[in-house]
Specification:
4 copies of one chain form a homotetramer.
Chain A: E1 4-10, H1 14-29, E2 35-42, H2 46-56, E3 60-62, H3 65-70, E4 76-79, H4 86-95, E5 99-103, H5 110-124, E6 130-133, H6 140-150, E7 157-165, H7 182-185, H8 189-205, E8 209-217, E9 222-230, E10 233-243, E11 249-256, E12 261-267, E13 276-283, E14 286-291, E15 297-302, E16 312-316, H9 339-354, H10 362-381, E17 385-386
Parallel strand pairs in A: 1-2, 1-4, 2-3, 4-5, 5-6, 7-12
Antiparallel strand pairs in A: 7-13, 8-11, 8-17, 9-10, 11-12, 13-14, 14-15, 15-16
């Protein structure tokens, strides 16, 4: 293998584990201009980060993310922390001339996101690359969906129907983890999972959301304080309770700038739906449906087939000609969630290695943030709200 | 068999054919206090109604619906015409002391609907019964859904997600049939199919929609005039065109009076979806999903099962213990669309025979009309709109 | 309507009810050269047949099927009794110059079936028509499947995979109804439901089964005697028990005369499968899958589509251009089990009216009988067994 | 991490890549007594194996598998070559005191397999472990299926219905790769994929196949010689052709020693089925269905639920309490094909580390070989054939 891309990762929980598996794997399946090297991981807890370094396969560890950024042997900073720290870390990394991969959402506020976009633009002039990690774009079925829309296979897009349904906090005794606190998470279902379907549908359709009418709800407003938490799981919990300060569910109608109309729903209260990201797009010539619960499939209705033979098909997106799939196994062998991150790292390394800008850019991620902002504002004012321009 | 219920039907197109099959069939499968007799059908075209009488099995025919109502040998008037004529016919029939079954939507305007409710109330005092025909309530899977919600099987309802998707006018050369003209149809997808999911979800949840934020769209605003039309099909068409004056699609967010939040969508532009009525309800203890494309099935997620065994099930609603099903075939034998009307007639005959009020009442149907009205108003004003009280 | 086809039906249980609904309905949906008239029904119990005549809509009734046959006002005899009586009734009816519709299986023995074929051939010379009622051929999706195979859409057929799965006797306390007694039913799952998948797959592929290797099993060999029974349901049951003399399940491998190889399975012990008739056919160019639990759908894999877009599609067989469907409802409106009989009557009336031979003929049904015979013999001898020639 | 398990792998094609990813990953997700170290890979082509070592992450490489076995720094030999070389390599490795993981099928002949079992037994006395790699046992849904059967959730097993359907050689111009040559592959679909469903169903049911009646077929008997081949893919091909000496498809009926009856089918000619391993098991109390195309799901019918609520459920086998799943991602996040190998390595390392015997043992694999042998013999003789005792 060729030259190295030396990575420093900040944060080592759910996202950190997923990113680590991707960094560890990407060069074993894809031929790339650079070879990823997992130099250092940082985290607040000295014991935690030490154990994580061993478990996740990092060469060293630190409790000081600023030190990580300053290291000469780090080319890229991979930010896997909660949203309230993204801006500070990303700005510092870009200032230090490091490439940055930042988990979504880009930031907890539009103001922060705008600052990050400006910093990325300035850094780009010096060949520094910045990318935001909307991993669902890298599901092969989603990438295929994008290809087919772009190739005109479904014609003019009329409808987008997008939901992201989870149920992990349906139980009122589930504790008040950081994802339920506005000061850390920025928002609830909206920013956590709503952001994914906003990005995914805009990416696939090639259209942007221009205005929204929204509704948010918090069904359980008081929860026990957690004794400890990690990722989505949490072991409860003291008798003391605290206020849930984010939305449990966010619903909105939208108009897209290409003429499509849409419904969106993100919720953590859809009992039985574990990670139910589902998108349907209807065009004048056909339709496409994706459901992450069956991530290796894409459903396609081709209005151009003979009338008697039309129907929604179940394409197994496991053929070598499908996006990303030639790197993996023979046709018919499913891949999993973590592969979306491997594909993300593949695209990022390719971009850095060839001196091009990776997507989604910080600017793309800011645009998602502006949609989230409009949704939150609409929910508060009960008014149709225009999405601000990037 | 016992005493007769002598029926006169007004209109003989799509709904007329469906009702006829139901009247013809109902007493052969259900034991009922009254036996339906198909006395007379009316329609505007002399040749059309004569042919329809033979084809659909009516003993006589007339071009004068007022004459039909006046006949002594008619006990019940079944109204299967477009919405703009419902009020006039129903009012006359009730005034003549006839029971009335009126197809949905009850009327094209709230004012008309209110008048019909008043007339039904007055007639009720004399033992005259009035019912509105929301046939989807009578899908056994939907009736089972209602039973399960009422029995608390899914707990407190948090989310309703309802769509009714069709695609029969995606082609811009499809002609301007009566369903696309506001003066006849009242509205487009909204009143035609949106009304069904409004009624169905309110029925199943036992909650009413209290406020909405809506969006409607007409994608194709000019269409060729039809040379002839019947039901949903139409043979085009002159070179002349006319304006489409109804919505092609209607989307809305809603709050229900029991605390649930909801998304609704009715469209005729969902390519590949022929009659895609789909409803998902999430409660605190479980979820239920119904899809009319697979009308003999109900999907149920029971959060009370052992953790390792939880999952959405596919209940074949063909067991003799399921609603309406003991009358039909052995377990595992599907029924079809027309059976929903047979069930409707069954319930109506049962109510008339036992001297009770059938459901949905005109008042229930008015409430749906008020929701439709609020949706239309919200779409026009771009404001959240309260649903008026019945 | 035109000239009448006056029908006398023998037997009024499950099949009798299904046939009655079909006779009652067929002329209301299909334009046909003859109009069915339900003249007379016969049955052994005077009270039973009298009640059935009213319930099922027959003009008169008798306890003497020979009298029914002799009536001048009966043109066609419809045989809906258990298999042990088919031959005697059919022979008498043909001898009396009546058209005959005989439920499957044609007979309980090959000898009887051969006699019936000979009688039908003799009668045919005088314009008398005979047909056997394999209703599943008349599912629109199955008819479409046949059309597509015949049109070469899946190329050379390699594999047939057919199961008919039920579970109604899994419970060992289910009583010894007539279907479990060899002297009445001829065989168990094999002749009852195995016959259907044999006929269906031979019809769809256009190939005949030439040899088989079979295995049959009776899991529960002793059951309580029934107190009363009707159709598939039965209310148990005395303390006395009797021997089950038919197979609970029959499995066989087969070679078809066109080069395809096949697996077949018919069982009443597939817990959870109520009426699970499922057939998959793989050809050199594509595949087709039908599942009666979703009888309004057909799944098609077209190997000729662009590589990235290949997948099993779900064709909703509800378009007006699909077999039989123009008679019914708009696209997307499902039909049910009973419609297969209405289609059967449609085809039969069409054949009689136009003076052509209906299919499947008694000869076709004999061939199915010969396959059943080979299967039974193979199961007994544990040898590959050739299917005798018709 | 603790003590190392130093691995030498023989072969680096499809299976070699899958095993490498598993060895590389297993300790990052599971807490194990030993830490895998990827010491050396061997292969026949010097350039090929050198490139593979880099690509797959092995520390060194050799063209001499005997040298690999002799190395002091190799504790375990992982055999990923075609079946004709398994015996020789495994015997040498066991003789050298190395643990052995051998891909399925254990060998190409029963004689070889018996020799391997004897060698494994001898080695076991010295603490040497041997395991055969039936990876599909390690799909979490399959492991759950086994748990549920063992816990009696579906009662007495009546039926097994197993297919493994592929279509990669439907095209007659697909070349004569090694998998189509008996001297290398032993058999065709039978040993390659039939072996998997034999092992899987015996594992899940806890019953063994005792006798079979089989049928095999080679649809395309002559194919172009390959110019080069690797794994399942192949770039054709000279004008010269050669004879296909293995089965394209193998079908058999079986009796299991616990009273169940079964159908099995393995084919490479099921157009549209890419890797369609599907197993249904019906018991007296319920049923279970697994389909590898949706490997993160298990379908369960619980006959013990209230009658109105019974139905096949779709369990998402992604909960932390499901087998193997606590190591991976939050609920609802799918895993892929390669994870089955990671689980295999997990179980193997656990067994070695704790001094217990891993499963499936060589003896278990011999038993599968004996079934394959009986199937082949039955197909040749057209006789029911008993499976020889281990």
């Amino acid at each position: 293998m060729s030259e190295q891309l030396r990575v420093g990762m900040v944060g080592y929980a759910f996202m950190g584990a997923a990113h680590s598996q991707a960094w560890r794997t990407v060069n074993h399946f894809f031929d790339l201009p650079l070879s990823a090297r997992m130099r250092v991981v940082s985290g607040r807890s000295p014991e935690g980060v030490a154990a994580a370094a061993v478990k996740l396969g990092w060469e060293s560890h630190t409790t000081d993310w600023r030190a990580l950024i300053e290291r000469d042997d780090v080319d890229l900073v991979d930010i896997c922390t909660p949203g309230d720290t993204h801006a500070e870390i990303a700005l510092a990394a870009l200032a230090a001339g490091k490439h940055v991969l930042c988990e979504k959402p880009l930031a907890n506020s539009v103001a922060e996101a705008r600052e990050m976009v400006a910093a990325a633009a300035a850094a780009q002039a010096h060949g520094v690359r910045a990318m935001c990690g909307f991993n669902y774009r890298r599901v092969p079925a989603v990438a295929l969906m994008r290809q087919m829309v772009a190739a005109g296979r479904i014609g003019t897009i009329r409808h987008v129907r997008a939901v992201y349904l989870q149920d992990w906090i349906v139980d009122p005794s589930f504790p008040l983890v950081w994802r339920l606190r506005k000061e850390v998470a920025g928002s609830g279902a909206l920013g956590d999972i709503g952001a994914h379907i906003i990005d995914l549908t805009q990416y696939v359709t090639g259209q942007s959301i221009s205005s929204v009418s929204a509704l948010t709800e918090t069904f359980v407003r008081e929860r026990p304080l957690p004794s400890a938490s990690s990722g989505l799981a949490a072991s409860a919990s003291s008798a003391e309770t605290g206020e849930v300060t984010v939305d449990d569910a966010a619903l909105f109608l939208a108009r897209l700038n290409g003429g499509a109309i849409a419904t969106y729903e993100a919720t953590r209260f859809a009992t039985g739906r574990k990670n139910g990201l589902r998108v349907e797009i209807n065009g004048s010539l056909g339709s496409l449906v994706f459901d992450f619960e069956r991530m290796n499939e894409l459903s396609f209705y081709d209005g151009g087939l003979p009338g008697d033979e039309q129907g929604f098909s179940r394409i197994l997106v496991t053929e070598p000609t499908h996006p990303y799939m030639s790197a993996w196994w023979p046709a018919g062998h499913p891949i999993g969630y973590e592969h979306t991150f491997t594909h993300e790292m593949r695209d990022l390394i390719e971009a850095i290695g060839t001196g091009t800008d990776p997507a989604p850019s910080f600017s793309d991620a800011l645009q998602v943030q502006l949609v989230l902002d409009a949704v939150a504002q609409s929910a508060e004012t009960s008014q149709w709200t225009k999405v601000e321009e990037v």
